[in-house]
Amino acid sequence: MPSxxxxxxLKIILSGITDKDIEIDINETGGLITxxxxxxxxxxxxxxLGKEGSTINAIRKLFNxxxxxxKKRIIIEVI
Length: 79
Prior knowledge:
Structural class: alpha+beta
Distance between the termini: 24 Å
Number of helices: 3
Shape: globular
Radius of gyration: 12 Å
Strand content: 25-35%
C-alpha cells in the first residue's frame, strides 16, 4: 500500500474520531513506514489516544494488518 493511501486512510479515520484536520507526517524507508500524528492541542491528543491507549492501539492494529499483507512494518507515533 503506497504511503499516500495510508495517509488518506488515516486522515479519514482521525477526522471521523475528532471532527478536525490532524497533521500527519509519513516517512518510508525500505520496508518500514513511520507515521507521526501531530494533534495541535491536548484535547485532540487525548481523543486520539483514548482511554488507556485503546483508540490508538486499535488504529495501530488495523494498520499493522495492512502492512503485514504488504510485507512492511508500520510504526505510528502520537507527538
